[in-house]
Amino acid sequence: MDFNQSPPQVTIDPQAPQVFSQQLASICDNEGNLLFYTDSQTVWNKQNQVMANGTNIGGERLRKVIIIPAPGKAGKYYIFTLGFINAVGDYFIDQHLVYALVDVEANNGAGAVLEKNKILYKNLHGSFTISAKCANDIYWLVGETNESVVSGIATDRIYAYRIDANGVSESPIISSPIRMSSSGGYKFSPTSDKLVFSYEGTGPSATVIADFDQLTGKVTNLRRIASCCAHVAEFSSNGTMLYLSQDSTLLQFDMRNGDQNAILNSRNVISNSGSYIGGLQLAPDGKIYISRANTKALSVIEKPEQPGEECMYTPGGLPLGTDAPYYLPSFASNLLYNSPVNRALAGEDKILCVNESIRLGNVSQANTTYRWEPANFLTDATSANPTFQYTNPTDTVVVLTYQVTVNDGICPRSDVVHVTVHPLPNPPQIIGNLVVCPGTQGVSYQVENATPESTYKWNIQRGTILAGQGTQGILVNWDSIRVDASIEVIATNAAGCTSQTLLQVRVTERLKPGIPQGATQLCLSNKDGQVYNVPYTNGSLYTWGIKGGVLLSGQGTAQVTVNWDSEGIHQLWLQEDNRTAKASCYGTSDTLTVTVEATPFSLNLNFVSIPTEKNNQVQVQGQISGFFDFTDSVRIYRRQQGAVNWMKVASIRPTDTLFTYVDEEITSENNPYAYKLAGLTMCNEPVESTIHQTIRLSATVTEAMNQIHLSWNAYEGWGNRLAVYQVWRRVDEETDYTVWATLPADVLTYTSADITDGFIHHYRIKAVEHTTGYESWSTTATLEFLHALGIPNVFTPNGDGTNDTFEIKNIHLYPENELVIYNRWGREIYRKQNYEGNWQAEGMQNGIYFYEFSTKQLATYRKGMVQILR
């Protein structure tokens, strides 16, 4: 039956084997293409070939078989079926449930059975069913066991086996909701929270609805809905309706109210005529198909979710052209669940620009919740179709992935959408004269930061474009006197994103030339030959004025060359004159101030320090004063102690007057490292900082004297401004370091007798500079000690002040302990938790005693003998 078509097409494959079996099962991919099928004894692939190792898989052809995807194992599937271990005449005993594992991708797609005849359990006493809630890769197999004959149990019980990415559990979850002697007809609802079955018991037999907990595997809350026993049951695709057969009668129950009386009161007789009903099965098209004995068609329930006659029961609705099977194949019910949420819709992938907005998702559905992750840049993360707007500035393409989870209250579904955000082009900067004479022709305007991949559209107010539309520069003819003239340029990059700039222009007789452009901070070495200019306006005459320098060339034009005098503050300005057919115009610029200095440059290192306990970083902080060459910047150099050559490790922009850099390419515990700054000024003068060197700490131990020895190299770079060295320590689980000692600047060693303060000691040295408080941390030195317990075998509690207590060496390091003392007859005479070594054997006679000493830290205990001598 091909459900890719409606109604489903019934075909016979002439290449398929002719198999006599009442139980068959098949499995397809998501597009409905056949993968393989089985009769519970043999497995055939989609080419109708027996799979490798695909015979005698352990089933019996008269019994149920179900195929499910193997959770967490792509391309692999489980086959569960029933068989018998023994048979006596026509009577079968020892019914057992077996499974096999199939790999459809093995043998170049021909498939193979990897495992077979795997017995799950041997005393199944009825049928079984399988389902998973919301296809969440955790399945449950539920069936009954024949334990009513077992002494001490005396009832059949329901076993549930969990099937997940770890495989098929061998330990069942056992439920015994009612005393029964046999049961059958087990069927999960598509939502997997309900279970229907029939049973015979010590009292009235019944068909019941039960609750099933997908987390625990427990079966509870049985509600009787019909008498027992040979019923076939099926749920509608959303689990709201249950259909039950009684011989040839077809019944319907409404499951939306879980109360037993409500279910019983909803009972509808859908059909009470026709032959015996052998099978009810929900299909992928959401319809329920019914197999009746001695017919050549399947009856159909067209709309199983509708109550009563509205379910549209059609006798013989699907002709088969051959005898209808007595049974119909069974499937994991969750695979056929039809949620009111057909699927989650995050929408098509989006491409847009920074600051643009767009809707994600789809139309909201009733009784449904939505959750978008992440929520960044969304107007409402709980909406079905929130608005997305990316407002962060960016120079690169940003790709964001959003997942929407749609939940109908039973099963969540998810979908993702990718949003690609392209950066805006840099806002175009327009160069040109902002004040022009009325009637001026061919005035040039340019985009200063133009990029080759961008195009430019110009708009002119109160003027006309003479040439250049679509390029980075235009020529403009201006009209009569106007105060509302303007130029707008719109830049569009390759992704179609735009930025725009509007420039106000005054068309007036009173000109205002721009301030001269050129160097304003100069060294003595490059004060001569400096070039200054203003935007040129066609037809204008430029008269330059200067104070503190000499005009070498360019008088009358928009660009001049200047030799400045010696150190000091100097000035440059100009007057612009323009005569057109409409007006005579003039105006004077603002004055440019130029400073010539001798040596306005310096580089300083404040400190170098080891910022973490990992010893694999050095923090470098420094300051830059003056103006340095942007093409070379300021460089940080490093060399290892004892090395001659310096290695460049980073460049710092000269605009970062105070900077911090972390060097992550070192191993500071091996050697100290020296650092310096170097750069070229704008006058091509080399400048270097003083050299600073890190501190490397070493630690040794003299255990016989209970001493720790620390030594370190001197910090270099502060000279006589180094104030003190501080010894900092952290022991065991302490989170913070504390100051352990403060030493003068000329002391580079420290010895302490604190070895027994803990098992793991961490030490660091901090150098402190006295004028600014700058700090430099050393590498970390770590020492580990065993600190074994020392338990004496004799002590003398005679009050002489020597050996008066049962003192255990290092006991202060094991505070969570317990000491118990026994006499020679095994009677407990002393017990103390958190023992501190102060027992004096009060009231005890001299002699031999026995102890047990346990500690939480060691997770064990010690036993021994101690003698008391007074």
TrEMBL record:
InterPro entries found in the cross-reference section: FN3_sf, Ig-like_fold, PKD_6, T9SS_type_B
Pfam assignment, any one: PKD_6
Bilayer-spanning residue ranges: none
Residues in PKD-like domain copies: 426-505, 513-572
SUPFAM superfamilies attached to this UniProt entry: Calcium-dependent phosphotriesterase (SSF63829), Fibronectin type III (SSF49265)
NCBIfam families attached to this UniProt entry: Bac_Flav_CTERM
Protein name from the UniProt record: Gliding motility-associated C-terminal domain-containing protein
Species name: Rhodocytophaga aerolata
Classification of source organism: Bacteria, Pseudomonadati, Bacteroidota, Cytophagia, Cytophagales
